[in-house]
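From the pipeline queue, job 12 of 40. The input is one protein chain; the requested action is below.

Action: predict structure.
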Amino acid sequence: MRLGSPNHSPEVNKSNARKTNPWGWKRVLVAIVLITTLGLGLLALGFLRSVREITQRIPESYAAWTAGNLIVDFLNTHSNQWPRSWEDLDQVTNCQRYVPIERLREQVKVDWDADFHQLVQAARSNPAMALRVVTRPDGSKLHALWGADTEPNRKIMGYLLWSLSQSNAPPASTTN
């Protein structure tokens, strides 16, 4: 064989190398595109979750906190009488309101027929009981992102338990 034969030329060897692995660079390119697409999809999912958090859960958490504040303050200032309407709660002036009553009406459902004395009895028999007197309009649990003490049912249960401790306290001694 001669040095200049077609089987030994550098051009033929390069083309043979290309023919032996024609998908190598294409596979790498496809892998890069797939990984990039997956990464962008995960970023988009995280972004959408953040948007949902901002647009739904945070306002709902403020509504839950406000509803709990209003009900507990109403009970405290109205001789433990359960409120019967949003108008009753609108009278409350001693607590922090994070959401106006008009928006609470849309975001929160209150069981206006609840009986304070029955709730106290239930709290007495089971202090760990989960109340469901304040919910979303569809009856499901409200989000309370700021902590357990901002969830309205737990806040009301706390007030019920406090009320029980006050009624069980020994009478103040009188000195003559």
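Job complete. Residues 58-167 form one domain.
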